[in-house]
Amino acid sequence: MSTTSHIRKNGDAIPVAASHDLRRQTVCVTGAGGFIGSWLVKLLLLKGYNVRGTVRNIEDMKNLHLKGLEGAEERLILYKADVLDYESICLAFDGCDGIFHVASPVTNDPEKVKVAVAGTMNAVNAAAKSGVRRFVFTSSIGAVHMNPNRSSDAVLDENCWSDLEYCKKTKHWYCYGKMLAELVAMDIAKKRELDLVVVVPPLTVGPMLQPILNASCFRVFTYMRGTKKAYRNAVMALVDVKDVAQAHIHVYEVDPNASGRYLCIATVVHRSKFVQMLSEMFSKYPITNECEDKVNPRVKPYKFSNKRLQELGLEYTPIKKSLYETVESLQEKGHLPPAHMLLVSPRIPSSL
């Protein structure tokens, strides 16, 4: 039997519901209302965990979907918390066995670098203070592959790091911020003897649980609407959002000795292959087949290793299926109208 709980501090935390029967560990997911965060909350609930989720505004429409997840009524508590507010994070983490720190600004705004870094500092310190069993940090391929000195024949793996100066010089502020945040997390965790494990996903696609269009699905959206008139002569690493969420759970519970980084990459394809897959499945949409580079040879996909997660039992979703479910989700959420109703918007820069 479950009863409503009222865990509050100055009105900052309110529950969806709580149960007297704590069947499993209690874990907290920061950024619970986001693309990856929502799927992580969903899968944790399905596995029987008692889940706390931090959001900046509990009553915001973009977070209401969390209350409808299976198991939410009994085992999900939402906390109003901001990663820049250390006390609010401490409140959410207090009494937790594990933390999944997903929250981070997904933007190339240089002003948000300090948010990513300071928020991570607060989360790691709060987790250490709470004495959690394991802290799982969501990094990004932006912290791994942005290095002009890496050979095209080299295998991208957990030992690879981006070049911070190169990220600054080329104004890849998101990559710069994620790498700094990961380095800060590792440094603090080592000093405070916190068990830290890092999941490193690339561009993440798949069905959205949240109503708001997120940055990675927006990329698919721009191609579907025909607002991209040409694609770059470049490659892209991809993975399904469900696999990323499952990867977080795998590194948390499968191996007690799990440590370090885990690359969560399903495939690396040239953008021509990316648009080809979309065109094959949705031929009525105005998807470009033009490359903006008419001169240079096509860039070859780089080699990568995802064996660390495979050794933990993670199986990757075929990316064409993931893209199909992405578009299907865009339609169901009302972001993408049927092809015959589509009005082509102004051109989107091909760099996106």
Automatic annotation (TrEMBL):
<dbReference type="Pfam" id="PF01370">
    <property type="entry name" value="Epimerase"/>
</dbReference>
<feature type="domain" description="NAD-dependent epimerase/dehydratase">
    <location>
        <begin position="27"/>
        <end position="254"/>
    </location>
</feature>
<dbReference type="InterPro" id="IPR036291">
    <property type="entry name" value="NAD(P)-bd_dom_sf"/>
</dbReference>
<dbReference type="GO" id="GO:0016616">
    <property type="term" value="F:oxidoreductase activity, acting on the CH-OH group of donors, NAD or NADP as acceptor"/>
</dbReference>
<keyword id="KW-0560">Oxidoreductase</keyword>
<dbReference type="InterPro" id="IPR050425">
    <property type="entry name" value="NAD(P)_dehydrat-like"/>
</dbReference>
<dbReference type="InterPro" id="IPR001509">
    <property type="entry name" value="Epimerase_deHydtase"/>
</dbReference>
<protein>
    <submittedName>
        <fullName>Cinnamoyl-CoA reductase 1-like isoform X1</fullName>
    </submittedName>
</protein>
